[in-house]
Amino acid sequence: MMNASPTLFPTSINTQLFQRCATVYLHRSRWIWSCLPGFVRALPIASAYARHLHALVGRYAERNQSHSTFFLRNRPELELMVQLLKSRTLDATVNIAVVACSKGAEVYSIAWKLRSSRPDLRVRIHAVDVSEEVVNFSKTGVYSFQSIQTSGNYGRQSPGHAADLTWKDQFWEARPLSMFERMTDKEVREMFEIQGSEAKVKSWLREGIDWSTADATDPQFASILGPQDIVVANRFLCHMKPAAAEACLRNIVSLVKPGGYLFVSGIDLDVRTKVAQDLGWHPVPDLIREVYEGDPSLIQGWPLEYWGIEPFSNGCSDWKIRFASVFQVQ
Questions:
Q1: Is residue 209 in a domain?
Q2: Checking DSSP bridges between strand 198-201 and strand 93-99, what pairing results, if any?
Q3: Alpha carbons 293 and 263: distance in angstroms, whole number
């Protein structure tokens, strides 16, 4: 006997057809969005359209981990880290874990900022990534650029030279970007020893950093590193599907000592908000907007890149917990 309400096509065919239609629709929408002037994009109806597009992108885009990064990628984030350590006494030890440390840019940026601002502190950094290749690369602290330009444009070279990890995946607007892209001449000289076409992180910054390979989704992850004063889990959870990112974030937070801080940007906001509310995290209000908007590449990705972040807004009741990138964990 036939079912009372048969389906016209098998579910798999329906899903594939809908996904193809969504891909075509998003391709066309990308062109439409690029043609809209700024004042139109700011209108409420355009904002609603952008949220609709981003929801589709988040559902159907293929998510892949990326090693693209920059030194001093989010300056307000580093400033806030210094502020949060103001109460630490002389010669205090601060333990910091950087999860998904990638090619080391964030690790060395944190070391430079904290040791320059608080030379009296003993800063111990635990740098962890799932990729043994990038951990081994980062540990050497050696990065390359073709030449130093007097204009301060460090590390600029043609796409044909983008073979090593310093340049791997560093593309934005169809051109390769150096990891030094956001640094000044002075900052490069302070952080690196320049040897021909290479820049080596100075020894006083490499000291006190432990490098290891581990998976942040492993239930034993927290026991491997031990309790930390600050845990940095930035710009990698967005590359996971929401359910996987949520499970990983819940696993990572167990690293944070009671009263410690979790830095977590570059993640689907709905995922972060849900976990923060469920676990009772306290959003850090200081520099909340500056830190949220501190990485321009994430802003530029909205709404048609799954890793792009929506415009900051304090118009909703939960805006502090939604747009905070730093939380105190009890």
A1: yes
A2: unpaired
A3: 14
94, 98, 103, 108 alpha-carbon torsion, rounded to 10°: -20
Single-letter amino acid, residue 116: S
Domain region containing 27 = 11-60
Average pLDDT of span 184-211: 95
Q: Looking at the structure, do residues 226 and 320 belong to the same domain, yes or no?
A: yes
pLDDT band at 170 (very low <50, low <70, confident <90, very high): very low
265 — pLDDT class (breaks 50, 70, 90): very high
Residues 56 and 81 in one domain: no
Report CA-CA distances (Å) from 97 to 32, 58, 124, 139, 287.
42, 28, 8, 15, 22
The kind and range of the H/E element at 210 are strand 209-213
CA distance 261 to 284: 9
Handedness of CA 95, 108, 103, 75 (dihedral sign): positive
Model confidence at 145, pLDDT cuts 50, 70, 90, reads confident
Tell me, yes or no, whether 226 lies in a domain.
yes
